[in-house]
Design a protein that fits this description.
The protein is mainly alpha-helical. It is built from 15 helices and 6 strands. The strands form 3 sheets. Strands 1-2 form a two-stranded antiparallel sheet.
């Protein structure tokens, strides 16, 4: 069964969703979340938002700041960082605090959120051509995979009508449950990107708007969606583009459902490890475990350090192993499983890695990840 949304695209045609197609993915995610009360609260959402989701929201834009640097910027103690990088972090921090303390999503509050997210990072053209609410000039969106490929946001004279439709979509009918809220949040996320109401900072605003809607509807586990996107950015861009061009949001929603389930499964595995170990991991340790659980195939110290460098400021493999991996080995969260035949730098021998099998529990809830492959 296909639903026609009151959110239109070219020739005023409605975007559609194939609800029947999405049912198995919705069922799998709901089945997974059933009984996991520790994820379904505001404390979990805040923990994820500050600073994992903040980092992920910027990673999607190609900005790879370390968690420690993000915390230093928030605490106003960061040094040797450009003002632009610092501003992009602090803007999201202020934006997240805004959505945590303001509930109403309307034309004025959205504009206020945007003022936080864009503060001091718009160029002169962006400042001059941002009106009371939205842009006053065309915007061209470069596709990451091709330097010469551009798409255009909707015409300036249509922005107000389309944004009113979006706000009406979010506010007119309350969702019946957390899953409906997640689906609506991601439709809004997609449609905001389609409209592209600003000259810059559209992506971060769209994702922060979706997070805002989730918070308002107490749909706390789904807050991990930025992190879910960050591990599959190319797919994200592809599904957004295909949905814009084909007038159907179904495959984008399937992508979001499956990616979020994988991220929540990682959270559940790490939660079980912490419970069995008898202590909580630090933010950095939690992140390294996320990276490990994101890998496929063989796992060596060099491979994990290389994976880390994809999402953080690049540093030497040796430094990542010493500073990020070895502390987890010392705490017996990870285990050395023997040396490989190669070294990673300066003659230091590379070695195989695995999660301590006494800490990692197999559970039928985990379906998208194979826990055995990480032990």
């Amino acid at each position: 069964m296909k639903t026609r949304l009151n959110l239109t695209w070219k020739d005023d045609l409605p975007y559609i969703i194939n609800e029947e197609y999405l049912k198995p993915y919705i069922y799998d995610l709901l089945e997974f979340l059933d009984g996991l009360d520790y994820m379904n609260n505001l404390d979990f959402a805040k923990k994820v938002m500050m600073s994992q989701e903040l980092k992920a929201n910027n990673i999607i834009e190609g900005i790879t700041d370390d968690l420690s640097l993000i915390d230093e910027v928030i605490d106003s103690i960061a040094q040797n960082i450009s003002e632009e990088r610092k501003q992009r972090i602090i803007n999201l921090y202020h934006g997240y605090n805004y959505i945590l303390s303001h509930q109403d999503i309307n034309k004025d509050s959205l504009r206020e959120l945007y003022s936080y997210l864009s503060e001091d990072i718009l160029d002169e053209y962006g400042k001059e051509n941002t009106g009371e609410y939205y842009r006053t000039k065309p915007v061209y969106i470069r596709k990451r995979s091709r330097l010469d490929a551009y798409t255009e946001g909707i015409e300036v004279d249509k922005i107000d009508d389309h944004m009113n439709r979006l706000l009406e979509f979010l506010n007119n009918e309350m969702p019946n449950n957390e899953m409906e809220a997640f689906i609506k949040s991601q439709i809004a996320h997609f449609y905001f990107v389609y409209i592209h109401p600003y000259l810059d900072v559209n992506g971060r605003t769209s994702r922060t708007l979706a997070m805002w809607y989730l918070l308002n509807n107490e749909s706390y586990p789904y807050i991990v969606f930025n992190r879910a996107i960050s591990f599959a950015r190319r797919d994200y861009e592809t599904y957004i583009a295909n949905s814009i061009n084909k007038g159907e949001v179904t495959l984008f929603l399937r992508y979001m459902l499956t990616q979020v389930q994988t991220e929540l499964e990682k959270e559940h595995i790490i939660h079980g490890i912490e419970k069995n170990a008898g202590f909580d991991l630090t933010k950095e340790e939690h992140q390294m475990m996320e990276y490990l659980l994101s890998m496929k195939g063989t796992m060596t110290a060099k491979q994990l350090a290389t994976f880390y460098n994809r999402f953080n400021q690049k540093t030497s493999i040796s430094a990542v192993v010493k500073q990020k991996i070895e502390p987890l080995i010392e705490k017996e969260i990870l285990m050395r499983k023997g040396n490989t035949t190669k070294s990673f730098s300066n003659g230091e021998t590379n070695f195989w890695l695995g999660i301590n099998p006494e800490l990692a529990e197999e559970t039928p809830k985990i379906k998208t990840l194979n826990i055995k492959s990480f032990i």
